[in-house]
């Protein structure tokens, strides 16, 4: 059984197309990163998965059922985002008691230990927490619920770097303890690429790529060499970005379309450098004229 | 593949009702405060009065009845229903296992439960007022009906429930899909037009003259219709539209 299966999924808000013809499938228990620039459609896609919004066109199946307003899929799904809110009448401790009543796999002890580690006072209310503490509480809430399908939308926003590193480990440890499908939408790809198995890259409402971390890392490479040699390559290769400094040029190209071997490149005075996953995602969503420096030129 | 959690929708709704009933308890305390205020306001001169005079003799009747309490409770139920359908309340439901429809059903059950409690509060307010008047013993005191008849309580329950249901429905209409919002606005405009141009069209006289049982059945049927529409709208609603 596929966890998620989307076909030709589109979502529009008036004239604005948030998602366009998205087709993807996620199967098995894994941690998948939903990556994309601001406004790429990440949150819209996650809200469709969680059943909070309805696709304008196309189909979405979660555990072989349409998730929109579906209580059966909702029982196996938890969406954590910065909009998560709780009643003003509940302290954090009460919230944990309430959640334990709803979620059958709820880990109360673990929740208490994690919140104690983060020095969060359980007597206060959710609205009284600082931005960072609220983010920590939300992540803990999402993880200890141990839902088969856990969605974390920008979970680390507001947390300091040290605690972010801690909580990436928490996510991984919780995943090992109770394997499930975890989707994480985040802009901190560099920090979390070690815990991700796959990446779903979105740009302007479309899926640019859906690949494993290793496949994605190998997708683009950086070539640096004399201008004239780089120009020759540019003639037949699609270029994702180019920077020229004096006689040297640096280009980002698709590794699979490069027909030259490492030795041939060396013979032309071109050096090949691997890119980080974060850089690959940046260049795959790079657009002509999107250079910030161009604004000041 | 790990096994999926299979919770029955009824169990989820039961849990939602349990927590909502606990969390929304302040709505009931606001009703108690309202009833106390109105009891104090009408304590000296009743809800209605009537007087006769001949020569040196002046007779004045002060009538104390349930009517004001019921009207206050109906208004309270409408506002409470409206409040329960607001973004703040509905967003809180997303933190637990819920769908828009299950949340709406749970809220409806809480409105029904609170309407029952509201009837008890009304009856209690009425009797407290009677005890207060009895203890004061300033004037002659005639009790027409010491025990409130069950049919009157049923009318009270039905009308409070109906107003709660209307409040909830109006709230959901304005938070629902765009087509529902437009239909609601159109309905209000047409209703206002009919009310102003053909006031005789709205005639509740024959309705009021019906027996208590018939009035309560009408109220319950209308409340069920409103609740049904609320669930339907909730089922069509998206979270982004909240």
From TrEMBL, chain A:
Classification via SUPFAM superfamilies: P-loop containing nucleoside triphosphate hydrolases
High-level lineage: Bacteria, Bacillati, Bacillota, Bacilli, Bacillales
Domain ABC transporter: residue ranges: 4-229
Descriptive protein name: ABC transporter domain-containing protein
UniProt cross-references to InterPro entries, sorted A to Z: AAA+_ATPase (IPR003593), ABC_transporter-like_ATP-bd (IPR003439), P-loop_NTPase (IPR027417)
GO molecular function: ATP binding; ATP hydrolysis activity
Cleavable signal peptide: none
Keywords per UniProt: ATP-binding, Nucleotide-binding
TrEMBL record, chain B:
Keywords: Membrane, Transmembrane, Transmembrane helix
Bilayer-crossing regions: 21-43, 63-84, 105-128, 148-171, 178-198, 213-234
Keyword Transmembrane annotated: yes
Transmembrane helix in keyword set: yes
Official protein name in the record: Uncharacterized protein
Annotated organism of origin: Lysinibacillus macroides
């Amino acid at each position: 059984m596929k966890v998620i299966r989307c076909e030709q999924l589109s979502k529009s808000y008036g004239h604005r197309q948030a998602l366009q013809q998205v087709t993807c499938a996620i199967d098995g228990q894994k941690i998948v990163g939903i990556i994309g620039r601001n406004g790429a459609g990440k949150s819209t896609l996650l809200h469709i998965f969680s059943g909070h919004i309805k696709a304008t066109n196309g189909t979405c199946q979660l555990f072989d059922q349409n998730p929109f307003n579906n209580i059966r899929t909702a029982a196996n799904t938890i969406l954590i985002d910065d909009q998560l809110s709780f009643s003003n009448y509940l302290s954090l401790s009460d919230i944990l008691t309430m959640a334990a009543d709803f979620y059958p796999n709820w880990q109360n002890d673990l929740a208490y230990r994690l919140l104690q580690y983060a020095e969060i006072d359980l007597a206060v209310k959710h609205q009284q927490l600082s931005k960072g503490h609220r983010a920590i509480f939300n992540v803990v809430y999402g993880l200890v619920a141990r839902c088969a399908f856990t969605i974390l939308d920008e979970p680390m926003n507001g947390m300091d770097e040290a605690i972010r590193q801690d909580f990436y480990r928490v996510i991984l440890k919780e995943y090992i303890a109770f394997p499930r499908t975890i989707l994480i939408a985040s802009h901190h790809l560099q920090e979390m690429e070690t815990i991700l198995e796959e990446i779903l890259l979105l740009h302007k409402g479309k899926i640019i790529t859906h690949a494993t971390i290793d496949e994605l890392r190998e997708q683009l490479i950086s070539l640096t060499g004399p201008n004239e040699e780089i120009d020759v390559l540019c003639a037949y290769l699609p270029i994702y970005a180019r920077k020229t400094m004096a006689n040297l040029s640096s280009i980002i190209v698709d590794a699979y379309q490069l027909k030259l071997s490492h030795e041939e490149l060396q013979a032309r005075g071109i050096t090949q450098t691997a890119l980080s996953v974060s850089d690959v995602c940046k260049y795959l969503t790079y657009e002509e004229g999107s250079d910030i420096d161009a604004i000041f030129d | 593949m790990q096994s999926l959690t299979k919770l029955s929708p009824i169990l989820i709704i039961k849990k939602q009702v349990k927590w909502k009933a606990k969390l929304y308890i302040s709505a009931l305390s606001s009703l108690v405060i309202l009833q106390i205020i109105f009891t104090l306001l009408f304590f000296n001169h009743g809800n209605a009065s009537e007087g006769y005079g001949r020569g040196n003799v002046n007779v004045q009747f002060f009538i104390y009845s349930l009517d004001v309490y019921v009207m206050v409770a109906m208004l309270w139920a409408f506002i409470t229903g409206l409040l329960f359908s607001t973004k703040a309340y509905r967003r809180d439901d997303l933190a637990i296992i819920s769908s828009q429809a299950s949340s709406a059903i749970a809220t409806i059950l809480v409105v029904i439960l609170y309407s029952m409690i509201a009837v008890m509060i009304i009856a209690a307010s009425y009797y407290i007022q009677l005890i207060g008047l009895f203890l004061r013993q300033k004037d002659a005191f005639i009790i027409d009906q010491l025990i409130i008849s069950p049919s009157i309580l049923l009318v009270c329950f039905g009308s409070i429930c109906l107003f709660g249901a209307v409040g909830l429905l109006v709230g959901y209409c304005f938070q629902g899909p765009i087509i529902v919002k437009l239909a609601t606005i159109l309905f209000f405009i047409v209703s206002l037009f009919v009310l102003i141009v053909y006031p005789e069209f709205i005639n509740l006289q024959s309705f009021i003259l019906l027996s208590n049982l018939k009035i309560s059945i009408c109220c319950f049927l209308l409340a069920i219709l409103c609740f049904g529409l609320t669930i339907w709208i909730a089922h069509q609603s998206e979270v982004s539209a909240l």
